[in-house]
Amino acid sequence: MHYVIIGNGGAGLRAARTIRKRDPEGTITMVDGERYPCYYRMRLPDYISGWRERETVFVVKDDFYSENDIELVREDRVTAVDANEHTLSLERGGTMSYDRLLIAAGARPRELTCPGHGLDGVVYLRTLDQAEDIIRRAGEARNAVALGGGLLGVEMARAFNELGLDTHYLIREDRFWPQMLDAAGSSLVEEVLEEKGVVLHKEEGIDGISGDAGRVEKVGTTSGKELGADIVGIAIGVVSNLEFLEGSGLELERGILVDERLRAGLPDIFAAGDIAQALDAASGEHRLVTSWLNTQRQGEVAGINMSGGDAALEGVVPFNVIVIYGLPVASLGLDIPPEREGYEALTGDYPRDGRYRKLVLRDGVLVGGTLIGDIAEAQAIESLIKMQADVSPYRDRLFEPGFDAKMLLAELRGGQ
Fold it and tell me: Which residues of the chain have pLDDT under 50?
């Protein structure tokens, strides 16, 4: 059996490990555009800011692949998939056949399109090479601008600030991470940023970038401000790497549509990670979930099924955790409920003492939660969302002193 995995990120590596454990004799080939062993993308901001040494970024060492009899084809990309012939076309020439295929090709940063977007000094952070480039540039820089109101945007602003750069952080919305946090939750994060010297500009985007001799010098904002900048970090979302799948016969939306076993709709083809559009347990819709925890779970399920097992992915629950200057933030499932009947957000008497706790219910069923300052309940809340727990009988207890979602989870499981 020849297993081919497109991508050497979290999902691809987890699948390879799972397959090798279950099938010691099968042939495993991984194809990836980078030259490195698998690494943690979420650790790149900490590496840039000096919190981590370079070696801690890697998930495995170089010798992992040979020790596990895995062929890693580096610095090459798949350009087409022929599902009928079970073959792949490669960028550097030639084809490769497969018996079972996992597409874990991930995503890339969404690019800025304003005037000056291509000037030297406009940077993105998705790869280790990009992180190394930012570190090099920071040694010669004084001013930085970061754009993006989500997790990577705030991480870039933090990294620039910790590198000693005068940092302006532009958020196009009215607050930080409005897709997942309400105003009270966002304000706790914003206060920490401002205390550390990051200058926030809310409801502010980039109208244009100017420079001299092809290098960035200034950023023009949508409100007419001019900000000096030697580095401009862009974090306005990601786009799944789907282009090479056009004409393959796979069903594509924002990602590859997959079922609960991560089958991609064509014989012997699976998808996992940032490129797989799986069922979201909270919303009941197929959506992309770009988190490390998600890549690990999907990679394992795909690996089991590719090697002859039968595993089903529990409904995907968006699960994001970030620590901003020591302030932990966890967001799970749906946070800001849609404007539909049946949804309610409960916060008790939070925020208090620098902490925040919010639970979102839909017709009494827990569908989301936000924790700031203390995130110990995060995994229990995720489990309650997955089991579609009706918490309405416990409504009066949810915010009592000493109440913990772990206790509620144990109580509900005990009653099953």
Answer: none
Q: Which of 100, 69, 55, 76 is nearest to 8 (CA)?
A: 76
Give the pLDDT of residue 315. Answer: 74
Measure the CA dihedral 174/177/181/186, to 10°. Answer: -60
User: In the block, which residue shows the tokens 């020790």?
Assistant: 67
58, 59, 278, 317 from 53: Cα distances, Å: 10, 13, 34, 31
Contact 326, 354 (CB under 8 A): no
Is the separation of the CB atoms in 378 and 403 below 8 Å?
no
Check residue 170 and report its DSSP letter.
E
- pLDDT in the model for residue 24: 97
Cβ count within 10 A of residue 40: 17
Closest listed residue to residue 65, CA positions, set 114, 131, 102, 12:
12
Question: CA distances (Å), 146 to each of 159, 235, 260, 329, in order?
Answer: 10, 8, 37, 20
Residue 301: Cβ within 10 Å count = 26
In angstroms, rounded to a whole number, what is the distance separating the alpha carbons of residues 372 and 390? 24
Mark 44-62 as b/e (b = at least 16 C-beta within 10 Å): bbbbbbeeeeeeebbbbee
In sequence order, what are the residues at sequence separation of 6 or more whose Cβ sits closer than 8 angstroms to the Cβ of residue 324?
154, 155, 158, 189, 192, 193
Per the CB < 8 A criterion, the answer to whether 235 and 124 are in contact is: yes
Helix (H) or strand (E) holding 197: none
Could you give all domains of the chain from N- to C-terminal order, each with its CATH number?
2-108+239-306 (3.50.50.60), 122-236 (3.50.50.60), 334-414 (3.30.390.30)
CA geometry: angle at 299 spanning 293 and 300, to 5°?
95
244 vs 267: CA distance, rounded Å? 18
| pLDDT, tens digit (0-9, with 9 covering 90-100), for 216-239 | 999 999 999 999 999 999 999 999
User: What length is written for the chain?
Assistant: 416
Bridge partners of 277, per DSSP, are 257
User: What does the pLDDT look like over 316-367, one tens digit per residue?
Assistant: 788 888 999 999 999 998 766 666 788 888 999 899 888 999 999 999 999 9
Phi, psi of 328 (to 5 degrees): -80, 140
Whether the model clears a pTM of 0.90, i.e. scores above it, the answer is yes
The whole-number pLDDT of residue 335 equals 67
- Spell out the residues 6+ positions from residue 379 whose beta carbon is closer than 8 angstroms to its own: none
